[in-house]
Amino acid sequence: MNINCIDDEYPSPPLIDEITSPRKKLRADCSARKSWSLMDRRTDQEVLQEMGVSLLEQDDNEGHCEVTIAPHKANLKRKRDADIENVNPNANSASPQRRRSPRSPRSPKSPRAKARPSPGPSRPRSPRSPQAKPLQPTDPLETTLLSDYLVEEETPLAQVSTQYVPPHQSGFTSGSTSSCSGGKKHSYTPLGLEEELIISRRSKSEPLGSDTFSVLSDEMILSVFRWLPKRTLAHCMLVCKRWYQVACDETLWQRLDLGNKVLSRDALGRILARKPVIVRLASTEIAEWRPSTPPAPTRIQYLDLSMCTVDHQTLDHLLERCPSLKKLSLESVELRDATCKLIGGCSNLETLNLAMCRGITAEGLAEILKGCVSLQALNISWCNLNEAALNLLVTALPQKLQRLNVGGARIMTDEMVQQLASRCPRLLELDLSDCSRLGAASVAAALKLTRLEHLALSRCYLLPPHVLTKLGSMPSLQYLEVWGMLQAVSLGALRAALPAVQVNQFMFSAIARPTVGARRTSIWGLRTRD
Hints:
The chain has helices at about 5-10, 15-20, 25-30, 45-50, 75-85, 140-145, 155-160, 165-170, 195-200, 220-225, 230-235, 240-245, 265-275, 310-320, 335-345, 360-370, 385-395, 415-425, 440-445, 490-495, and strands at about 175-180, 185, 255, 260-265, 280, 285, 300-305, 325-330, 350-355, 375-380, 405, 430, 455, 480, 500-505. By secondary structure, it is an alpha/beta fold.
């Protein structure tokens, strides 16, 4: 055992006498603690090694810092060295690399200087101590402990914080070392793909060369924009002024499908500003629109407002600006007489769908029939028309009318059907379904329609089954709908009596009937021909 250690652990007798003094008791307690006094160190180099100052110096011949393990107390290190020197000099015979040299450990000519402990983890070396250089630990225990510590350049934080040099600028490769100004060498650790993308976004430079897209003419850009959907086209309008002007071309906005949407306030005015031709707003919630400018005619020809939610004033403002309508659908929309008058102002209207509309009166119906002289298809089924409105309907319909659906008119009589057949001899399709008062006289009146192709008499329970066989004399009849009237046996007999007529082919004939030269859609639909 070393004598110096005994002196450290057991104080001398004069010190014990001083401890008995009450004033100096506190001083003695504080003096027993660990201190960094220069009195218990033999050289300045050992003091710097103990304080870890020498670790702050960067060696010119070394590329990175060496990491050493610091024990908790410096006196334990001295005790261990003393035990090795005085007690058992052959204790390290198993490890010849750690065997003491006959020279002094503090001699500058010693080939193997013992590594001094450091008080903390590895940190940059100080330029104030250029002579102190930590050596590589050779003890197996210290080597094992050193493997648990990572070099700062291998940590994720050091990888991200290290200055990134692109490969094409610095010739950087994996594991290579690049030299910087001042003769210092910095090793760069290869980053991952995500880190490279983050750094490249931060240091993104402007593209070199000219914009090849700007060389194209407006006509070429317009031809490219025709292939884009409307949402993407709206985003292109925000790129630059030139793209905005090209994207505002009215040929790109001929069709607008905004079905099942929610339009904000005054959004309808911005839609009309694009000058579309076909607008679909089926099942759309349309907020109020109060334009401050006088009404100006638009280019809209096909307008679908089926089952939309819209107030009366907004609907009137919209119809007031659509005098060129050819097809209009207002299914399940509440109407007023003023709205019907605006519909009558569309003199070019050819197809009108008013199925299940509410609020249609005889005065409003008169305004529609008076102005729409070019009407060819009318669906006014299930509108709960009164008797006056029905009498006006069968006597004031346009003579050029070809398709008519008055299904659900439960108060319609045989006399009204006769007036209808004499008023519209060019009918091609006639739907009288759910007109429960019709009898054999209505079938006789339908025989006068020589051009009729499709006749629907579903759920007309007062019609005798044998009267339906007379429809075989009609030369142009192709489809007959009698759903819910005949049993299976009677239905088979009717099909045998009418071999040239297809019976019960379309359950909803006036809604889902395909037309020649068009897509499969309703005869009252708003899709144009191919």
